[in-house]
């Protein structure tokens, strides 16, 4: 039994969902059955997926605390080739602020409450107790990894994990210094004129989100372009009235990730759509 597997099992015993990572800190690719998410995706991805594949498929959604799965022969093949351990912070009730440069670390020390800190190759991971939306590029060299994301396990670090503070949650709704990330929620002014917003009809909005999910799910090629165009259409219809919520945006991101899009690609597509529309 290799050291990575031993560590993974130890983490699983503390309710931290784990998965093996290959070189480059990347998850293993989907198996043939799950290629292009033909299986429908993992149920834990909050889609209608029914995948029961025992392989290490679907990126962060493969993370598990089940020793039987972690020790299985198929996972064993992955562990034999693995270069590291990934874990799903949100699934463990955690949020990781990934600081990817000395400048980002210096900013965190000036700005964020001290918590458990783990050194990384280029900076530090600051871990807080509590889950939130994962957002890349909240500022230069700063990503938030929690729900629907994975982080690399680099040890327990030092310090005491404190509850997720509002200042970290606020990073998800602030305008970043460079690329706009996916927002924690869409907060824009209601249409001028003081009239009622037609989008506030639950049926109208639900139909629009469902159609957007279907459009992404049914994409057979040019997935990047389809995701962007769909985000653009949703924001064009609903982005200026304040109707969209975290739950709506999460459904769109989940559909896109089920088609193989990374969290970063989703965030960039959403940001570019917002910029194009000026919302």
Taken as a percent bin, the fraction of beta residues is 5-15%
Largest sheet: 5 strands, antiparallel
State the separation between the terminal residues, measured CA to CA: 53 Å
Structural class: alpha+beta
Order of strands, widest sheet: 5-6-4-8-7
Based on Cα principal axes, name the global outline.
Answer: globular
What is the string of helix and strand elements?
HEEHHEEHEEEEEHHHHH
Mean pLDDT: 82
SS element count, helices = 9
**How many strand elements?**
9
Radius of gyration: 19 Å
Unreliably modeled segments = 45-49, 174-196
**Considering DSSP H and I runs of 4 or more, what fraction of the residues is helical?**
25-40%
Summarize the topology.
Layout: H1 3-13, E1 18-22, E2 26-27, H2 67-70, H3 73-81, E3 84-87, E4 94-99, H4 102-111, E5 116-119, E6 124-129, E7 135-139, E8 142-145, E9 151-152, H5 166-171, H6 202-217, H7 223-238, H8 246-258, H9 263-277
3D structure, described in words:
The protein contains 9 helices and 9 strands. Mean pLDDT is 82; it is low at 45-49 and 174-196. It is globular. With 279 residues, the protein is an alpha+beta fold. The protein has a 5-stranded antiparallel β-sheet. The protein has a 4-stranded antiparallel β-sheet with strand order 2-1-3-9. The longest helix is centred in the last third of the chain and has 16 residues, at 202-217. A hairpin with a 4-residue loop joins strand 5 (116-119) and strand 6. The N and C termini lie far apart (53 Å). It has helices at residues 3-13, 67-70, 73-81, 102-111, 166-171, 202-217, 223-238, 246-258, 263-277, and strands at residues 18-22, 26-27, 84-87, 94-99, 116-119, 124-129, 135-139, 142-145, 151-152.
């Amino acid at each position: 039994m290799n050291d990575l597997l031993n560590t993974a099992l130890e983490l699983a015993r503390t309710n931290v969902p784990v998965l093996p990572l290959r070189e480059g800190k990347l998850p293993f690719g989907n198996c043939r059955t799950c290629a292009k998410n033909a299986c429908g995706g993992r149920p834990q991805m909050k889609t209608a997926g029914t995948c029961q594949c025992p392989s290490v498929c679907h990126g962060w959604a493969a993370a598990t605390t089940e020793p039987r799965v972690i020790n299985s022969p198929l996972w064993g093949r992955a562990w034999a080739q693995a270069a590291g351990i990934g874990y799903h912070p949100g699934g463990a009730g955690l949020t990781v602020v990934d600081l990817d440069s000395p400048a980002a670390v210096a900013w965190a020390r000036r700005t964020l409450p001290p918590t458990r800190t783990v050194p990384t190759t280029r900076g530090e991971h600051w871990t807080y107790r509590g889950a939130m939306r994962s957002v890349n590029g909240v500022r230069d060299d700063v990503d938030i990894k929690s729900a629907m994301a994975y982080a690399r396990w680099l040890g327990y670090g030092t310090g005491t994990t404190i509850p997720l503070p509002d200042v970290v949650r606020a990073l998800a709704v602030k305008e970043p210094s460079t690329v706009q990330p996916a927002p924690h929620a869409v907060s824009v002014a209601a249409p001028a004129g003081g009239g009622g917003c037609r989008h506030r009809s639950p049926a109208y909005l639900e139909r629009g989100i469902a159609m957007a999910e279907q459009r992404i799910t049914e994409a057979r090629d040019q997935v990047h372009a389809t995701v962007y165009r769909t985000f653009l259409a949703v924001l064009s219809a609903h982005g200026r009235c304040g109707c969209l919520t975290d739950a709506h945006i999460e459904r769109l991101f989940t559909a896109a990730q089920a088609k193989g899009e990374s969290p970063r690609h989703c965030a960039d597509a959403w940001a570019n759509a917002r910029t194009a529309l000026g919302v």
